[in-house]
Amino acid sequence: MVALLASFPSPFRIIWPVGALALLAATAPPTTPITTEQLISRLSTAITNLKTLRCTVKAQERVGNKINQARSIMKLTYNPLRIYIKNQKGVEVLWLAGQNGGDAWVYPASFPYITLSLAPNGKLMRSNQHHTVLQAGFGTISDLLRSTGLRQDNAYSRSFRYTGDTTLQGRTSHVLRSDFPQFRYVSYKAGKNETIASVAERFGCGEFRIFERNGLSVGETIPEGKVLQVPNAYGRYTVVCIDPKTYLPMLVQVNDDKGLFEKFEFFDVVPNQPIPLAEFTKDYKDYKL
């Protein structure tokens, strides 16, 4: 789940109109009775059992007061993790577990037209986007529903409810929704050796808004005792639309106190079909890496 290289200049971005929530307004009785617990379990199991994935993703992510938007194709294998992403402007990213010193190969599709090696968690690849390339696919979505002992409060993950079916992309999808009106920013005093990642895990809020709200940079150490403003959950209103055949997400939309925070739409999803290993090499015939 990634707005590909949003930190690059504007020619790399693809503009799509912001979607409305109207598509969720029309609901119909479910074709097959299912409970909230069953739907969450099947969704989590479908994501966990992925061995390969091909899909197209339309992403909208709020950065400051703007919505950064992108459309990308993705190919992934799991165990070992291999990721290939290409957006409509031709920007390509290839990351392979255990190769290139942990860096991603990036072809910027712009001057100087050479392939770069960039750290997936570094400033350039993390700037102005909510998630890293390593979170491509559905990992972030399963995390929304995950309750752990590390969380200060699991109320958000427990707030999701199956609310019926809707029509999306011309077919039926199950709607899983969270209404969390108690969403707000809270003060948190950082402990010893805390990182942005550990604070994000504690609150289940993701890293981006911690960076943004507190003026922090990627990789910056948090001084012990520093008081941060941190969201107490991932969103105020969250919708996940799920394909009843694959139980994989078709759409995820998160709104917070400012409105739309992020929205991801997944098209042409092909799970667990073999992908030739050649498609995860730099010299593959269709790539410019």
From TrEMBL:
Keywords: Signal. Residues 1-22 form the signal peptide. Pfam families: DUF1571. This is DUF1571 domain-containing protein.
